[in-house]
Amino acid sequence: MPIEPRIAALDWPHITQELESHGAARTGPLLAPAECAALAALYGEAAGFRSRVVMARHGFGRGEYRYFAAPLPPLVAGLRAGLYPRLAPVANAWNAAMGLPRRFPPDLAAFTAECHAAGQAKPTPLLLRYGPGDYNCLHQDLYGDLAFPLQVAVLLSEPGRDFEGGEFVLTEQRPRMQSRAEVVPLRQGEGVVFAVHHRPVRGTRGTYRVNLRHGVSRLRAGQRFTLGVIFHDAA
Ligand SMILES: O=C(O)CCC(=O)C(=O)O
Ligand SMILES: [Fe+2]
């Protein structure tokens, strides 16, 4: 099945509900094992990427990632364009709840045009590769003033078979309170939608803003690949 109808067939009411209550949601199966393997295999290709980051060199963790160059591989472009319109209403509701003035257009082409006009023109989808002992420190994928508040990561390897450890982790820092951690268990081909930076939480005294970070715990063994889909482009 092409990616667009597959995205349409996901349980969006449930995903939206999970995002509202927890700031993160699993998509359920999104990519077939062969598609995951084909995407992971791109990591070893010389062409198709605009930059490579060795995380240890920057204090980001251990392991590495590569940002795709434009034009994105069709499956990556299809995921980005197909997921965006489903998430834009959530993004707009979040900004309204947090009292932030920005609203996001209903389709990715229009949002990408806004990014380019703001000087953010480099594509941000990326492939990440982790080996034994590798990890990804808690971070936020912000690349300029313009940021879409949700992003998606798709696990391309199978836990237990291809790697051990390496859990996707989110932390949520609440105002004047201690941070809360959440581990999101994923299967190969499954995505997690999560807050890039802030999200609104309804409390007894109205809505407040929490600050989220995400990362990956240490791999105990094997190799783990991820596809990261970030909707704003980079400066
Ligand atoms: O490898 C992961 O699961 C995390 C990837 C990540 O940081 C991202 O997609 O932004
Ligand atoms: Fe990230």
Automatic annotation (TrEMBL):
InterPro entries: DUF2086, Oxoglu/Fe-dep_dioxygenase_dom
A Pfam family: Oxygenase-NA
Keywords: Iron, Metal-binding, Oxidoreductase
Domain of life: Bacteria
PROSITE patterns for the chain: FE2OG_OXY
Keyword Iron applies: yes
Annotated Fe2OG dioxygenase domain residues: 121-234
TM stretches of this protein: none
Family indicated by similarity: Belongs to the iron/ascorbate-dependent oxidoreductase family.
Listed name of the protein: Proline hydroxylase
Originating organism: Paracraurococcus ruber
Organism ancestry: Bacteria, Pseudomonadati, Pseudomonadota, Alphaproteobacteria, Acetobacterales
